[in-house]
Amino acid sequence: MKVAATIGIEDYMADTAAKEAEESLPSPKENQAEADEYHRFVGIFLRAERERKEITPAEAAARAGRSNGWVSQVERGQNDSHKAAKLLALAIGTDFSYIVALAENAVDAQTRARNLTK
């Protein structure tokens, strides 16, 4: 009888944990919004680094073997490819992991701020 009671408690705990996890998961719409914010921040930080290093968009494009429009798209977060962002980071001589860390921190800060107002 103790085994049945133990299994019942474990099932209850597992079910409760699953429900709590489900409630804390962002909706697909929130995930997409967060992904869009992330790409926008990657672009913002890439542009800031390019400008800090006094590299023109044309120069960055030439180094990457791409067009000026491509640089603009990446910097505006309209090209959501990590490969593209990494190529631009390489072209301007910036560590991509640094850009990613900045973008992730910015998204986290915005998410926390948004949650404070809920």
Give a description of the structure.
- The protein has one domain: lambda repressor-like DNA-binding domains (434 Repressor (Amino-terminal Domain), Orthogonal Bundle).
- The longest helix is centred in the middle third of the chain and has 25 residues.
- The N terminus is likely disordered.
- About 80% of the residues lie in helices and about 0% in strands.
- With about 120 residues, the protein is mostly helical.
What number of structural domains do the residues give?
1
Following the backbone from N to C, one meets helices and strands in this order, namely HHHHHH
The poorly predicted ranges are 1-7, 20-26
- CATH H-level superfamily title: lambda repressor-like DNA-binding domains
Q: Main β-sheet, in a few words?
A: none
- Structural class determined from secondary elements: mainly alpha
Strand content: under 5%
Question: How would you summarize what this structure contains?
Answer:
The protein is an all-alpha fold.
Task: Please specify the SSE layout and strand pairing.
Layout: H1 2-24, H2 28-52, H3 57-64, H4 68-75, H5 82-91, H6 96-116
Provide the descriptors you would attach to this structure in a database record:
single chain; 118 residues; 434 Repressor (Amino-terminal Domain); 6 helices; elongated; disordered N terminus
